[in-house]
Amino acid sequence: MSPRVFSGMQPTADSLHLGNYLGALVQWVALQETHDTIYAVVDLHALNEHPEPEALRRRTRATAAQFLAAGVDPARSLLFVQSHVPQHAELAWVLGGFTGFGEASRMTQFKDKSAKQGERGTNVALFTYPVLMAADILLYDAEAVPVGEDQRQHLELTRDLAQRVNASYGDIFTVPEPHIIKATAKIYDLQDPSSKMSKSGGPGGIIEILDEPKVISKRIRSAVTDAETEVRFDERLKPGLANLLTIYSALSGRSISDIEDDFAGKGYGDFKGALADVVVEFLAPIREAALGWIESPDKLDSVLADGAEKARMIAQGTLERVYDALGVVRPAH
Ligand code: AQP
Q: Would you say 287 and 210 are in contact if contact means Cβ atoms under 8 Å apart?
């Protein structure tokens, strides 16, 4: 059997952005060639923000639609919605008993988001988010988890939890490895190149997969760069431009030095114009395919129901193994 991969994304916006796409989704699609792949719209994770119910419904389907449009193939991958597989919440409860309070408090995503949201927006679900994420991964015996750099620390916690449970109860969990591609592990905000591009960031700083071409062009043209004019990759001195070059290279498949050569003697205006064309052309078919899926909710729901049915069987197998090892009495029938 091929090695297993699991990854998920939250339905926290109507559209995914280029960071989600380049940091994770591209790998999701590529790994279908070599791995047994399982992908989820992790809607339970999104509940801590109390989304408006209609928005959550719309975003859950739109997120799945974008996975499919980007190339996740239901004939080769299991694709489902996390809440359709109740074992995720069950295993998260079990793993919570193995997670130190201090350990969870050290998660930088929790510290950042709780600082941003203040005391009122900081709830227990935000705190236990990485424990639910560990359950998502461990339920499927995933060996590799394709994510962006921002998720590395959560992956480390997942590994620690798996090893901790295994050390006490025998070989229950597969210990997963992060699958992070260095060049595109962190795409930065176009307006603030010191922050990651994020669904919850300011609108000017992100390029959304479902954006209209003219919006994409405008965002790229107004991206923050620096006072120089030379198109040269330098993450330290020219972080805004380096981010744009990373995007250009990833979407065009050309090396950064080739792109630098192309723009030798030209200014940032020419470079941004060309980048806008590359991004618009690249995203157009994905956008069109995603809108097609969004307009066919029955077809989409049916793909997700099939995926959930298969995912439940795998997840229940793992959960039984865990309960059995821990001494939890199972129903007689
Ligand atoms: N800027 C980024 N560069 C590279 N990878 C990124 N990812 C997110 N932002 C970047 C990767 O995309 C996946 C999305 O996971 P998620 O939806 O569960 O949440 P997230 O990491 O918190 O993503 P966002 O977009 O920043 O959402 P919000 O604003 O809702 O928190 C992960 O694999 C992530 O690494």
A: yes
> Each residue of 105-118: pLDDT tens digit?
999 999 998 998 88
How far is Cα 94 from Cα 161, in angstroms, rounded to an integer? 11
Distance CA 310, CA 195 (A): 38
Report which residue type is found at 68: L
**From atom 27 of ligand 1, which residue's Cα is the shortest distance away?**
199
Each residue's pLDDT tens digit, 196-208:
999 877 879 999 9
Helix, strand, coil shares of the chain as percentages rounded to 5? 60, 10, 30
Residue bearing tokens 């859950």: 60
Residue nearest to atom 7 of ligand 1 (CA): 20
pTM of the complete model: 0.96
Listed in order, strand segments (DSSP E) in the chain are 4-9, 36-41, 77-81, 144-146, 177-179
Evaluate: CB of 198 within 6 angstroms of ligand 1. yes
Q: Looking at ligand 1, which atom is closest to the CA of residue 17?
A: 25
Residue 196 in contact with residue 189, Cβ under 8 Å? Answer: yes
Instruction: Decide: 189 and 173 in contact? Cβ < 8 Å.
Output: no
Rounded to whole angstroms, the Cα distance separating 28 from 179 reads: 10
Please work out whether the CB of residue 63 comes within 6 Å of at least one atom of ligand 1.
no
Q: Strands across the sheet with 36-41, in order?
A: 77-81, 36-41, 4-9, 144-146, 177-179
Q: Could you tell me what percent of the chain has a pLDDT over 90?
A: 94
Give yes or no for residue 59 CB within 6 A of ligand 1: no
pLDDT computed for residue 157 by the predictor: 98
Long-range contacts of 268-273 (CB under 8 A, 24+ apart): 268/225, 268/229, 268/231, 268/241, 269/221, 271/231, 271/244, 272/220, 272/221, 272/223, 272/244, 273/221
Q: Which residues are catalytic?
A: 113, 196, 199
